[in-house]
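To the structural biology subgroup,

Please find below the input and predicted structure for Glutathione peroxidase, which we are adding to the shared reference set this quarter. The sequence is reproduced verbatim from the submission form. If anyone notices a discrepancy with their own records, reply to this email rather than editing the shared folder directly, so we keep one authoritative version.
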Amino acid sequence: MSIYDYTVTLEDGTKYPLSKYRGQPMVIVNTATKCGFAPQFGQLEEIYKQFQDQGLIILGFPSDQFHQEIGDGKAAAQACRTTYGVTFPMHEVGPVNGEDAQPLFKFLTEQAPGALGSKKIKWNFTKFLVDREGNVIERFAPKTKPNDMLPAIKKLL
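Predicted structure (tokenized):
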């Protein structure tokens, strides 16, 4: 399977295939509005604004798996817009680990395991970098600030 084989759901319930972004580098991040790492939304938005004209897309996927999300996808997206000015696509709230994990996150963790080969997402704001061909290039830990990903992002642009 390829990343382009997955269909995801926006915060408003609209489903779409990730093939919509074929040929564009992507940053895919699991988010939570009540997480201590939530200020990363600000840097993610800055990066999005700076590079979206070069094709970069950032996709936010709220998860309450760590009990730090405020509700459904609409409420989470509204909080991100109001507090951090987020304009990149936000999706429905869903699990990122375990049997019920969203299929996209099962794929991402298979393609880019964490420390010691772990397939589990340890916390909110785990970030995955995908190249223009749909290959998962790198996984970044929650504590990695989005600006620290810039060298890797720029290589893909």
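Summary notes: The chain has four helices and six strands. The chain has one domain: 3-156.

Regards,
Lab coordination
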